[in-house]
Amino acid sequence: MVTDMPITKSAKKALRQNVTKKAANDVRKKAMKDAVKAVKKDLTPASLSLAYKKIDKAAKEKTIHKNRASRLKSRLAHRITKSKSAVS
């Protein structure tokens, strides 16, 4: 027997909204993770720019916390700089 099913009309609506928002958040988070993986793989400024865009979008929509977004961007930038200095 399922006990967590909504009973009131407002609870049913809240459940529908939660499901919709979760789906959107999952798509946004997946796009962000894929962009970050792409940067780690090829370390180009173009991929970094795309990753920044995806990370900023996720933070703006509150899918991830703004401090996490900042930390991710900082780490990616550091990785790019480190790879450039190793090549030179």
Features of this protein?
single chain, 88 residues, mainly alpha, 0% strand
Polypeptide structure, described:
There is one protein chain. The radius of gyration is 18 Å and the shape is rod-shaped. The protein starts with 8 loop residues before the first helix and ends with a helix. It has a domain at 45-88. The protein is built from 3 helices and no strands. α1 (9-42) runs antiparallel to α2 and α2 runs antiparallel to α3 (66-87). The longest helix is centred in the N-terminal third of the chain and has 34 residues, at 9-42. The protein has helices at 9-42, 45-60, 66-87. It is mostly helical and 88 residues long.
Alpha carbon gap, first and last residue = 65 Å
SS class? mainly alpha
SS strand fraction: under 5%
Query: How many E-type strands?
Result: 0
What characterizes the major β-sheet? none
Q: How confident is the prediction overall: mean pLDDT?
A: 92
Helix/strand order: HHH
Number of helices: 3
In which range does the helix fraction lie? over 70%
CA-atom Rg in angstroms: 18 Å
**Residue ranges: pLDDT <50 for 5 or more in a row?**
none
Shape: rod-shaped
Please describe the topology of this protein.
Layout: H1 9-42, H2 45-60, H3 66-87
Helix pairs in contact: 1-2, 2-3
Short description:
The chain contains three helices and no strands. It is mostly helical.
